[in-house]
Specification:
Largest sheet: 5 strands, antiparallel
CATH class of the largest domain: Alpha Beta
Number of helices: 11
Number of domains: 2
Oligomer: single chain
CATH architecture of the largest domain: 2-Layer Sandwich
CATH superfamily of the largest domain: PAS domain
Number of strands: 12
Strand content: 15-25%
CATH topology of the largest domain: Beta-Lactamase
Distance between the termini: 81 Å
Structural class: alpha+beta
Length: about 425
């Protein structure tokens, strides 16, 4: 086949270009996969950190509240009102302190409890008292007679950081003082500090719908009990949680601590779900936590795209060189093959002129005639002349010449006699 029909440059360069394009696509997909894996690893690290961040946040606030209770316990006027069981006087003496801790430290709950766990006075709700308090922090403090703190779920569906101190007056246990801070602002606060988007939910199995709605009314918010199937939103960094987040929170099959990607308002977030535990260690809800990785994605993708373009430009820059080089090889091969075709043509023409002699030739042992294909006996000269391009010239060999000379000499001598 002629090389002109094959076109070596096209046969080689086209597959090479296609291979480079496929390699470029593979590199692009691989770079995207590497970006996703990197973000996923960072997200898992962030998820692991969130629990520690929450604990540190709670411990820091609890430490402050412990200090506030230490101040209250040593107030002589408050001690006197307590020992005299004068609820009105106790409220009057504690009002100034409650106003101070409420405004400066966001303390939303202030209790005085008796030794049997019955509430004696709620500074944040003075008309309600005399009920038995059945909370983990109070029980633990009563059992150990040491301060205890932790977050606990109230009957109205609020999460409160509660700090309880046993109250010793003249070295005798006289009762318990409890301060509490609602942590419904924890999600916006952590977003402001750490840049994390959070939504805290509480499982409905730990709540009563009527009490929860009453609690929402008390804190001046309008909650939607039916927004989620099995839980309610307690705190959110979103003014209104997007549908993508609600869908994720409603997905019971989603594994906790498993990283995910979610797109919100054209921003790419990566995050996960964590279990929410109260002071006793019981799981009472979920924490949705996500971080905006849009800029990181863009930077990494731009870097990958830059490297990909450099690769393509470098690869394509070699195409003209190879095109020219292969052209020279193609030219040489074309010349060589044309020469080969010429030689083949000459050989074919030569062979066409040759009539070959082959096989067994029947020849007379006496006269040396050869039998042809038709059964006729021919002289050797005639047979070869018919079956080849050979032509005969006649001469005489030395042996025959000597023999002929002897015969001529004999004939001449015979004449002389």
């Amino acid at each position: 086949m002629s090389l002109e029909k094959q076109r070596i440059r096209l046969v080689i360069i086209v597959p090479v270009i296609l291979a480079l394009l496929l390699l470029a696509v593979f590199m692009w997909l691989s770079s995207n996969k590497l970006v996703s894996n990197k973000i996923t690893r960072e997200t898992k690290q962030e998820i692991v950190k969130v629990n520690q961040i929450l604990q540190n946040h709670i411990e820091l606030n609890a430490k402050t509240i412990h200090g506030l209770i230490d101040i209250i316990k040593t107030d002589k006027k408050i001690q006197s009102a307590w020992l005299n069981k004068d609820r009105k006087l106790l409220q009057q003496e504690s009002n100034r302190i409650y106003d101070w801790v409420n405004k400066k430290y966001n303390i939303t709950h202030f209790y005085f409890h008796q030794l049997d766990g019955v509430n004696f006075l709620r500074m944040h709700n003075p008309t309600r008292h005399g009920d038995k308090i059945d909370r983990f922090t109070l029980k633990r403090s009563a059992e150990t007679q040491i301060p205890c703190h932790g977050i606990e779920l109230g009957i109205f569906g609020t999460f409160t950081l509660r700090v309880v101190h046993p109250w010793f007056i003249d070295k005798r246990l006289a009762g318990f003082i409890e301060l509490g801070e609602d942590i419904d602002r924890i999600a916006p606060e952590l977003e402001k500090i750490f840049g994390l988007k959070m939504v805290v939910t509480i499982s409905k199995k730990h709540l009563d719908e009527k009490n929860w709605l009453e609690g929402q009314r008390m804190i001046g918010t309008k909650g939607d009990w039916n927004k989620l199937k099995n839980s309610v939103i307690f705190s959110s960094a979103f003014p209104a949680p997007p549908e993508e987040v609600l869908k994720l929170l409603n997905d019971e099959k989603h594994e906790h601590h498993q990283a995910f990607f979610i797109k919100i308002d054209n921003r790419i977030f990566s995050g996960g779900l964590l279990d929410l535990h109260d002071a006793s260690g019981k799981t009472v809800g979920d924490i949705f936590v996500a971080k905006d990785f849009t800029d990181q994605f863009a930077d990494l993708e731009n870097f990958a795209l830059t490297m990909l373009l450099l690769f393509l430009l470098s690869a394509l820059a070699l195409v003209p060189f190879f095109y020219f080089y292969l052209g020279r090889i193609e030219s040489r091969l074309q010349t060589n093959i044309k020469e080969k075709d010429r030689l083949i043509s000459e050989l074919q023409n030569a062979l066409a002129k040759i009539k070959s002699l082959s096989g067994l030739l029947p020849i007379c042992a006496y006269c040396k005639k050869i039998k042809d294909d038709h059964g006729y006996w021919k002289q050797v000269e005639s047979y070869i002349d018919d079956h080849s391009e050979a032509e005969f010239t006649h001469g005489i060999c030395p042996q025959c010449a000597e023999k002929l000379s002897a015969e001529l000499d004999k004939a001449e001598n015979d004449k002389k006699k």
